[in-house]
Design goal:
Chain A is α/β, with parallel strands linked by helices. Chain A has nine helices and 22 strands. Chain A has a five-stranded parallel β-sheet with strand order 5-2-1-9-20, with helices on one face. In chain A, strands 11-18-12-13-14 form a five-stranded parallel β-sheet, covered by helices on one side. Chain A has a three-stranded antiparallel β-sheet with strand order 6-7-8. In chain A, α5 links the parallel β12 and β13. The longest helix of chain A is centred in the last third of the chain and has 19 residues. The two termini of chain A are 25 Å apart. Chain B is mainly alpha-helical. Chain B has one domain. Helices cover 76% and strands 0% of the residues of chain B. Chain B contains five helices and no strands. In chain B, α1 packs across α2 and α2 packs across α4. Chain B is globular. The chains are: A alpha/beta, B mainly alpha. The interface between A and B is large, with 42 and 31 residues.
């Protein structure tokens, strides 16, 4: 409690610095007494709440989320590696709710953008003037026949995506595998997914752990790619393919996992040549992902195109604003934009979306544009990573010109291991 | 990144290092005060402050080079786990922080020793002539 008080006092000082002009260009402000509803208190939701509270001081802001813990998800691969403890990625959501913002500990069960209302899990209806949909996404383990989230940590099944405990259990599974050896399968779903670099990270990390343990020769590591690429950005794809070759990591292309038999330790894949079954000793399962049910069942998702099937919300890729419901924005994983499902994307999406809302509240248009920036510190082993940043067009967009995005470097690892969490927390508070 | 500001940097440092960032700031101020006190002391006696500063800087640079290979340990990596030139430069810049503390301590204690030992600018000059 004392720490919270200290933190609040400190942050109040930082805010005063901003107010005193020790800041960047002044942010757009709106004096409107609007009701702003934020559906979801994850990275995007909290960051939106902090910015709206600052830029629209007279607004009534209500944020909805039933989860009391806030997860630093970029840390879960490090937990899976055994380099971090699960607890290092868990914080209290309460500590990041800005002063004056009302937190309703319910998820939104129904979106009705025609009447500008949302209904929470308890059945209470709320009218809004502006809506930010920041629900995150749904991990659909049940779309893999025979798979259940409860299986993580058992029968050679790992999956760092399901939460801090699952990431910790995944480390146990990897350790057991290294003791026994055999075949380890990695891969990714064919759907849009959050942090598309994580499947590669877990593959590299397992290879690195096996080498450090001196057991690499008894481990056959196989990566099953959902199409012909390992990464959607061409230079990175070429580089990772070369690195897999150098490290003896076998690759199977056009393999999409459809079923698993945990007792037989056999996974089935859809391939252009029909179903293929692969036996394994350890498997890292990444489930198909989709928008949460309440979003999918609403009028908000794309009605056609590649984003429609899994219910991602239809928004302008440049402004994150719904073209059909102009008082609705979607930010973070649930937004139906290409390549935008990382915490780094959120960092760049939130200022744009909030600025457009503020401008619209003032009867103006904002010139701010989100270019699809996203980032993936691709950990390739203990103490080394490649800091890959890119935009919608697949162009590499390094923030630091002196850091080669295609070179394994300790400085990139430093950013992942030491700098990312602080930057992330600052983002939750509406900075960065 | 169009919103980089002092407040953003302060909040990020605080969220990264917590209370350590405040301690580091206090240590920084203390070192600055020690540096000023050391030079005020030497100048008052007419002692060669420039040479003292040079000694402190050399100590800092050499110590930073010695510490550099150990910096990766701070990030769970192994000793000397540096790969590119940028890694060495960055690790060296981090190593400068503890090395600077040693450099300032050298300057401060040396100035105190010189003054308490009764050195004066005249004596020093005389010593140099004798050599």
């Amino acid at each position: 409690m004392k720490q919270k008080m200290d933190r609040r006092t400190f942050l109040a000082g930082a805010a005063a610095l901003s107010a005193a002009g020790w800041g960047a260009a002044p942010q757009a402000m709106a004096a409107a007494r609007a009701h702003v509803v934020i559906a979801g208190a994850g990275a995007a939701g909290l960051s939106v709440a902090a910015r709206v509270a600052r830029q629209m001081p007279n607004a009534k802001i209500t944020i909805f989320d039933s989860r009391r813990d806030h997860y630093f998800q970029p840390g879960w691969t490090l937990v899976g590696a055994g380099w971090w403890q699960p607890g290092q990625t868990v914080e209290s959501t309460r500590g990041y709710i800005p002063k004056g913002v009302t937190w309703v500990e319910q998820n939104i069960a129904e979106f009705d953008p025609e009447s500008n209302t949302v209904t929470d899990g308890a059945g209470t209806k709320y009218r809004y003037d502006w809506l930010f949909v920041t629900t995150g996404l749904s991990l659909d383990y049940d779309r893999i026949e025979g798979m259940d989230q409860q299986l993580i940590g058992q029968k050679g099944i790992a999956s760092v995506y399901a939460g801090p405990e699952a990431a910790g259990l995944s480390h146990r599974v990897i350790t057991e595998y290294l003791n026994r050896g055999g075949v380890a399968l990695f891969g990714r779903p064919a759907t849009e997914m959050k942090c598309a670099g994580a499947p590669l990270k877990m593959t590299f990390i397992t290879d690195d752990l096996a080498r450090r343990a001196g057991v690499r020769e008894k481990c056959k590591i196989v990566y099953t790619a959902h199409n012909q690429t390992l990464f959607s950005v061409v230079p990175v794809d070429v580089k990772v393919k070369a690195m897999f070759g150098q490290r003896g990591i076998a690759t199977l292309y056009d393999h999409v996992m459809t079923a698993i038999d945990p007792d037989a330790k056999r996974a089935t894949y859809r391939t252009p040549n029909g179903a293929v079954a692969l036996d394994y000793d350890m498997i890292h399962v990444i489930p198909p992902m989709s928008a949460p049910k309440a979003v999918r069942n609403s009028p908000l998702p794309w009605q056609s195109g590649t984003n429609a099937a899994d219910g991602w919300i239809e928004v302008s890729p440049e402004t994150l604003r719904s073209p059909r419901y102009p008082n609705v924005f979607a930010v973070g994983d649930v937004a139906g934009v290409p390549r935008g499902k990382t915490a780094a994307s959120v960092k760049f999406q939130v200022p744009v979306a909030v600025d457009h809302m503020i401008a619209a509240a003032n009867g103006l248009a904002s010139p701010k544009v989100y270019n699809g920036y996203t980032s993936c510190p691709l950990v390739t082993g203990l103490g080394k990573a490649m800091l890959i940043e890119f935009d919608y067009a697949g162009n590499l967009t390094p923030s630091f010109p002196f850091i080669d995005p295609l070179q394994e470097l300790w400085i990139s690892w430093f950013i992942e291991e030491k700098a990312l969490l602080g930057t992330y927390r600052a983002m939750l508070r509406g900075y960065a | 990144m169009d919103e980089i500001s002092v407040s953003m940097i302060v909040v990020t440092l605080w969220e990264t290092f917590g209370g350590l960032s405040v301690i580091a700031a206090i240590v920084g101020v203390l070192l600055f005060v020690m540096l000023v006190a050391a030079f005020a002391r030497t100048r008052a006696r007419g002692l060669p402050a420039g040479r003292l500063l040079l000694q402190g800087v050399v100590i800092m640079l050499v110590l930073a080079a010695v510490i550099t290979p150990f910096v990766p340990v701070w990030t769970l990596a192994g000793v000397g786990d540096l790969r590119g030139l940028v890694d060495y430069v960055f690790a060296y810049s981090i190593a400068l922080a503890p090395a600077a503390i040693c450099g300032v301590f050298w300057i401060y204690t040396r100035s105190w020793f010189m003054v308490s030992a009764g050195f004066t600018g005249v004596k020093q000059s005389a010593l140099r002539i004798n050599h």
